[in-house]
Structure formats: structure tokens, C-alpha cells
Amino acid sequence: MATETASSCTGSSLLQPISEIINLPLDQVNFVVCQLFALLTALWFRLYLHPSKTSTFVRHVVATLLGFYLALFCFGWYALHFLVQSGLTYSIMIFAGVEHMHKYCFVVALGYLTFCQITRVYVFDYGMYSADFTGPMMVITQKITSLAFEIHDGMARKEELLTSSQKCLAVRRMPSLLEYLSYNCNFMGILAGPTCSYNDYIAFIEGTAYRLKHLESNGKENGKCKQLDPSPKKDVIHKLCTCAVSLLVYLSVFRTCPVERSIEDGFIATTPFHLQVAYLYLSMLATRPKYYFVWTLADAINNAAGFGFNGYNKDGTPRWDLISNLRILDIEFATSFKMFLDNWNIQTALWLKRVCYERCPYNPTAATFLLSAIWHGVYPGYYLTFFTGILMTMAARAIRHNVRPHFLGSAALELLYDVVTWAGTQIAICYTVVPFVLLAVGPSLKFYRSWYFCIHIVCVLLMVFLPVKPRHLRAKEVSSDPAALQAPSSPPDTESNCSQKRKAS
């Protein structure tokens, strides 16, 4: 009941009557209302505080103060953790020097986040799986660490040692305290993100983002002239409709298919295994709309403020997916574990790639999954999920490299391969994330025992009997194969945008 969870809410109790009427926890009501308020404020911000009408200083100040107001409304004085975390890391940036400050910022930001997660889970309220102050801290941690590495790349490393993506994202001057707080705590992303690069955010505040994209397309695409400041109206409405459908599906279906039923003794004893598989898929399918709602609404808020413009489509329509966090259809119809991960929580995946995978000299896949587990929190279920995810990723890679080439001979074989891999991917994803939902070790292991750890065993066997060449050897093969160089990669990364920006400038 809403009244039972009201005491766990650390923010304002102003909306308590609404919480009781709709029977939802007060912290969740506060979160949704604040996001809707941020949406309306974003429209005002774009129209009345446009860069052509006001100064960069005013835009930074307003964005920051509104962000702190929303944080205080949702989390009360726990929102001060956002200031403490940002203040500590900014001090490190100023006094530690650019040579090593990225390492210190990484350790301090992640360590402070972990400390807050430990106290929230094991000291105050274990199992409070709802809106809490460590959620925004997770996004702020991403921004702090990303910016620290970008400053290090721009001010301490030689240009020839940087990748094309790192050259584009590199920050060449130390941000002011106001710019730093605005980037970390602006009202558009304080509650649910998504994270973004510092350069993209500053370009948005200064009003140069449209200009760069306008130059990229030379003002024309297929003979159609571009307006300098395209409207996000169509995309915002589309994303709000997606939010409404996602929320409706979640509220109507989630309670009828709880994941916890999968570990009930009666369910395990009386339900045939194939029906257990089907129920697991349906229960996990019912949990995803919650994330679709939160991330799509956050994306719509940023777009409404004028942030997220990413150039133009071939038909001349503007694209507003620069900081989008998911691609729903690609998730639901993913035919590989990698394809699912590439389209789920996209900005977090890019953060993991930039600060860990591209920079880790040893076993970057395992290191990336470990960092993801630490960043998510201290529930044991997270670590079980990401350990299983490592096995899944390695096994899926082995299948793709050894089995897929045999199905490329005809359209019928390719379709068969896609259907089989879609089903396998969906089952593997559901199997992997069960501990992420159940949180505790006991229930998670009970679920895996009911499945006889079958998918874990299959993954290990595939890794043993279907070896994959090391990454550096695969890279050599790709670089020596002209056809492979022209093959499409997984979802568009910032690198393509970066190369376009350099050409424009």
C-alpha cells in the first residue's frame, strides 16, 4: 500500500494524498510529477531562455538551480550527496593535476557512490527497490568519470595516442565550477539522466549544437533546405506516446506476472519446464516497460529543452537521438546478446566502453562487466547477473564466429538462424537478469537450481569447444579484409558523429 511505503520516502510529502488515491509509493509519485514538471520547464527553457535571448551564464544558473530544486523535492536533504560528490571530485580536478586526476576522480566518485549504496541497502532499508537518491548519483558518477577522462585526454595525452572518439570527446580546458555543477545536476537529467558528453552539453548551453549539425549537412539534404533551429515537437510527442503505452502495459501486466512466482515451490513442482520457460519470458517482458517509461520520458525532457539534436535523416527530417538510452524494437527483436546490450541503456554502455573497455589492457570484457556490477549497486543479485553475463557474452561470441557463417548461404537459412537466435537470446537474457530482479543470493540460486544451471553449463561447453580468436587477431583480419571494413557495425556510436563534427569545423 502507498501508506505503508510513505515512511521510506525522504522527499516532500506534499503529494501524499495523490499517492494514497492511486495506491503508488510516494517516492515514485514524486519522481513522476517532478519529471512532468521538468518537461514543462524544458519547453519554457527552450523558448524563453534560448541562447539567442539570454547569456550562457543565465542558462547554466537556471538549469542548475532547477535541478537542485527537483532533487530536494524528491530526496530531501539526501540530495546534498550530489553536491558533496561533485565538490570532492572538482577539488581533485583542480588540485591533483591532469596527469593523474582521472584515476583519483574515478576512485573517489565510484567509492562515494558505493558507500552511499551500502548505507542505504544495509543500514537503512534493504530491498527498497524504488526511486532513491543513489539513482541520480549513478548518473552523476558517469558524468564525473567521463569528464575526468575527457580532460585527461585533452590536456595530458598526445593527440596521436587518442582514438577518433577520444579526440572528439577530449576537453581542452578545465570547466568552471558553475559549468561543472550545471553538467552534473541540471534539471533535465538530474533524476533519470541520461548521461552525455561534456562537449555536447556545453554546445547545447551555448547554442552551437545546431550550427555544427547544420554545417555537417551543408544546409541541405536531398535538396531540402534546413532551418537553423529545428523543432523537437514531433519527436517529443512521439516519445510521450511511447511513455503512455509503456506505463499502461506495466501497470496492467506487471502485477499479473511477477518474477517471484518462478521460484515458488508449488509453481516449480506442478508446471512443466517448457511452461516455466514461457512464463519467465512473459514476466521479464512485463518488467521492461518500466524502464522504457523512465528513459523515454527523460529523453523527451532533454529534447523539449532543445538538447539531443543529432543532425538530419535522409528525408530531411531532424533526428533527436543524440542521447537516447534505448531502441525498443531492436531490444525486443534482438538476435544476439550483444545486440540486446547495444540497444539497452545505450549511454551507460557507451560510458563503460569509453572509461573501461577501450582502456583496460587485460580481459576488458570481464573488467567491463565487473565495473557495471559495482556501479549498479551492492545487492548480490547484481553480481550473479553480471557474472552470468560474462559467460553469455563469451558463449554468444563463440556461436557467432563458428556457427553463423554456415547459415549465410541463402535467405531461408539466414531467416532460420535469426529466428533461432532471437528465441535463444530472449531466453538467455531472461535467465541472466533474474538475480538482478530478485536481488538476494538465496532466491537467485533457487531459481538457477530449478533450471539445473543448464544455461551456465551450455555456455561453458560452448566456450570450451567453440574457441574464438583473441581480439587483436580478429582486428588484424578485419583490417586486412576490405569487405569487412565496409560492413555495418553495431549501433551508431559517437565516433561517427565525431568524424562529422571534425569535417564540419
TrEMBL record:
User: Which segments carry the region annotation Disordered?
Assistant: 480-505
Q: Note whether Lipid biosynthesis occurs among the keywords.
A: no
Molecular function terms from GO:
acyltransferase activity
What lineage is this protein's organism placed in?
Eukaryota, Metazoa, Chordata, Craniata, Vertebrata
Entry's Gene Ontology cellular component terms: endoplasmic reticulum membrane
Q: Name one GO biological process term.
A: lipid modification
Q: Which membrane topology describes this protein? A: Multi-pass membrane protein
Q: Which UniProt keywords apply?
A: Acyltransferase, Endoplasmic reticulum, Membrane, Transferase, Transmembrane, Transmembrane helix
Q: What is this protein called?
A: Membrane bound O-acyltransferase domain containing 2
The keyword Transferase belongs to this UniProt entry's keyword annotation: yes
